[in-house]
Automatic annotation (TrEMBL):
Coiled coil region boundaries: none
Cited CDD domains: CMPK
GO biological process terms, semicolon-separated: nucleobase-containing small molecule interconversion; pyrimidine nucleotide metabolic process
Organism expressing this protein natively: Vagococcus entomophilus
Record protein name field: Cytidylate kinase
Pfam families from the UniProt entry: Cytidylate_kin
Keywords noted in UniProt: ATP-binding, Cytoplasm, Kinase, Nucleotide-binding, Transferase
Enzyme superclass (EC): transferase
One GO MF term attached to the UniProt entry: dCMP kinase activity
Length: 227
C-alpha cells in the first residue's frame, strides 16, 4: 500500500490493540506509536516523585520528559530521556495508577499535542483510547477493538505466565474492569468509539484472524479507492 494513511486503533485494556497495531505497521511499512506507553512513562516518573495526584507537578515532569520510541530487533523500545523504560512502565504499580494520571486535562493536552506531531506525516498506526476521537479525528482508518472482560483477563494471564510472572486471574479481571471504568468515565476524551470507527469484537478470535479482518476493512474503504 503506498498511501500514507493514519490508522487509529482504540479500545479497552487488553483488547489486542498493540499486538495487531505492530503487525499492521510492519505489513504496511508504517510507524507504530503506542500512546499508552507515553501515559505510562509519565506515571512511572510521577510514582517516583509522589506526584500522581498533582496536575501541576505532572505537567512539570512532562516538561522535563523527552519520550521517544526506537525500533529494535526484539521490538519497539520506549525511552525516557534516553533511559530504556520499556519494561518498567509495564509494572503493576504503573498499570494501577496510569488511568488516574491520564485523566488530568493538562496532561492530556500536552501528550495529545506530542502524538499529533508524531503522526503529522501519516504512514502511521497509532493505538490508545482517544486516537479516533481526539488525537486523529481525521484519520482515514479507525478501528475500535473490544472483547469480553473474561477473555481480556485470560489474555493477560497467559501473557504473564509466558513471562513466568505469577498472577491471579480474578485480580487481573478486577484491575481491567477498574481501568475500563476510569477510562470510560473521565471528563476529558473518555474511551469511546468514534462514529466512523469500525467495531471489531475480537472475542474468540486469534491475532491473525483480527489482522485479516482489519486488512480487509482497509482495502474495502472507498476513500482509498478514490486515491
Ligand atoms: O494495558 P494496556 O495496553 O491496555 O494500556 P495502555 O495502552 O498501555 O494504556 C495505559 C493507560 O493509559 C490506559 O488505561 C489509559 O488510562 C491511558 N491512555 C489514555 O488515556 N489515552 C491513550 N490514548 C492511551 C492510553
Ligand atoms: O494493547 P492492548 O492492551 O489492547 O492488548 P495487547 O497488549 O495487544 O494484547 C494483550 C494480550 O492478548 C497479548 O498477550 C496478546 O498476544 C493477546 N491477544 C490474543 O491472545 N488474541 C488477540 N486476538 C489479541 C491479543
Amino acid at each position: 500500500m503506498v498511501e500514507k494513511l493514519k490508522i487509529a486503533i482504540d479500545g479497552p485494556a487488553s483488547a489486542g490493540k498493540s499486538t495487531v497495531a505492530k503487525i499492521l505497521a510492519k505489513k504496511l511499512n508504517y510507524i507504530y506509536c503506542d500512546t499508552g506507553a507515553m501515559y505510562r512513562t509519565l506515571t512511572y516518573m510521577a510514582l517516583k516523585e509522589n506526584a500522581i495526584s498533582d496536575e501541576n507537578h505532572l505537567v512539570k515532569l512532562l516538561d522535563q520528559a523527552k519520550i521517544t520510541f526506537e525500533q529494535r530487533v526484539d521490538g519497539q523500545h520506549v525511552f525516557l530521556n534516553n533511559q530504556d523504560v520499556t519494561e518498567v512502565i509495564r509494572q503493576t504499580d504503573v498499570t494501577n495508577n496510569v488511568s488516574a494520571v491520564s485523566a488530568f486535562p493538562k496532561v492530556r493536552e500536552e501528550l495529545v499535542k506530542r502524538q499529533q506531531e508524531i503522526a503529522k506525516e501519516g504512514a502511521i498506526v497509532m493505538d490508545g483510547r482517544d486516537i479516533g476521537t481526539a488525537v486523529l479525528p481525521l484519520a482515514e482508518v479507525k478501528f475500535f477493538l473490544v472483547a469480553s472482560v473474561e477473555e481480556r483477563a485470560m489474555r493477560r494471564y497467559k501473557e504473564n505466565l509466558s513471562k513466568n510472572i505469577e498472577t491471579n486471574f480474578e485480580t487481573l479481571k478486577q484491575e481491567i474492569e477498574r481501568r475500563d471504568y476510569l477510562d470510560t468515565t473521565r471528563k476529558v476524551s473518555p474511551l469511546t468509539q468514534a462514529k466512523d470507527a469500525k467495531l471489531i469484537d475480537t472475542t474468540g478470535l486469534n491475532i491473525q484472524e483480527v489482522v485479516v479482518k482489519m486488512l480487509e476493512y482497509i482495502q474495502s474503504l472507498s476513500v482509498l479507492k478514490q486515491k
